[in-house]
Amino acid sequence: MVQYGGAGHSYNIAKRLSKNGLLIGIDRDKEALEVAKKRLKEFQNIKYIHDNHDNIKKVIEKLNIDKVDGILLDLGVSSYQIDEETRGFTYMKDGPLDMRMDKTQDLTAEYIVNNYKEEELARIIYEYGEEKFSRRIAKNIYEYRKKEKITTTTKLVEIIQKSIPKSHNDKQGHPAKRTFQAIRIEVNNEIKPLHDTVINSIEALNSKGRLCIITFHSLEDRAVKQAYIEATGKCTCPPGLPYCVCGQKNLGKIITRKPILPSDEETKNNSRSKSAKLRVFEKS
Fold first, then answer.
1. 229-247 residue pLDDT tens
2. By the number of CB atoms within 10 A of the CB, which of 177, 206, 231, 240 ranks highest?
3. What CATH number does domain 2-79+192-283 carry, 3.40.1410.10, 3.40.50.150, 3.90.1640.10, 3.40.190.10?
């Protein structure tokens, strides 16, 4: 069993596998791995790997494992990362503009905010944050950094709030939510490799093995849904071609035609689960 991120799920998985099985926990955040090691110290059937889920094939090859029986991919930022203001993920607390899941990488939110061109900032905020005021936000970031470098989350929040009309501030949650999401996605390259990660994960499964993916926003969910459809062998060629040239092959079947959503009880106990969607694919 392989799990990417989401240390909160690990205890129950490790317990089920404790008598016969191996849990491989992969996370690009070294601090998250250390938290998981402490939480799961009673179990001996776990291998902790500091790596990116995009590298699933290389990870299991290094462990001399051919195929695995199941994979749980928990996407996005964790509660641990959000709650630690020094990581710079949250717009609710003052902290450095960091947002790196892997603190060993070079690219940070501070670099993006202070060095990307205005047009590129606007594109990222619009595409990854689905923010309709992206051009105004990018322009104000660009104008502010001419005078002074932007280094903290509170300063970025202040600029964003001034960029959005007051009449829109309370309609979709915190005004900085979408921009912070966009910058975080760019820092950690969360969307571009996702399609290949899904396909590679399916190919790493044994027959009848299942890939379970939890997403937390529409961009992730759409990418996963599309990858699952392609993995069923559905032709993606443009209409009108005399024969198929895309070469799609059937890897299995989608178990969840509609995503599984959290129960009312779960959202009551954990408000951050409200946007979660679970999709499952079974290898043929």
1. 999 997 777 887 877 777 7
2. 231
3. 3.40.50.150
